Amino acid sequence: MTSPTGTDVDVNITEVQQVSDDMVNSATNTQAALQSLRTTVTTLLNPDGGLYLRKTSPQMTQSYDELTTSLDKAMVSIKQFSDTFQVVVTNLRSLDGEDVPAPAPHNS
Fold first, then answer.
1. pLDDT given at position 20
2. What is the distance between the alpha carbons of residues 69 and 13, in angstroms, rounded to a whole number?
3. Chain centre to alpha carbon of residue 37
4. Cα 29 from Cα 31, distance rounded (Å)
5. 35 and 76 in contact (C-beta within 8 Å)?
6. Contact (CB, 8 A) for 58 and 46
7. Of the candidate ranges 17-21, 53-57, 104-108, the one whose mean pLDDT is the lowest
């Protein structure tokens, strides 16, 4: 989007809010999918699960747990980054004289 000639700021609060909401929703949905996959992989790597190797399966389970933990932290970071947009919206609304409370930060 290009700014009209002669302006330094062009803000569409609705678009900013929508992007922030999309980030949170996408991260939340991804976290749910990761948890479901973690359960599926853990089940697969257990005896009678379909891919059990006495020595290797525990290591694979641990590696997968570490991967999903890392990805989950990335999803939390996405939510926290969306808070940046929320703060911008809150500050802009304050400038317009609207009393808008700051959003709660995303920590999960």
1. 92
2. 33
3. 17
4. 5
5. no
6. no
7. 104-108
pLDDT > 90 in the chain, percent: 62
Q: What amino acid occupies position 24? A: V
The type of residue at 26 is S
Contacts of 105 (CB under 8 A, 6+ apart): 80, 83
Full 3-state SS string of the chain: CCCCCCCCCCCCHHHHHHHHHHHHHHHHHHHHHHHHHHHHHHHHCCCCCCCCCCCHHHHHHHHHHHHHHHHHHHHHHHHHHHHHHHHHHHHHHHHCCCCCCCCCCCCC
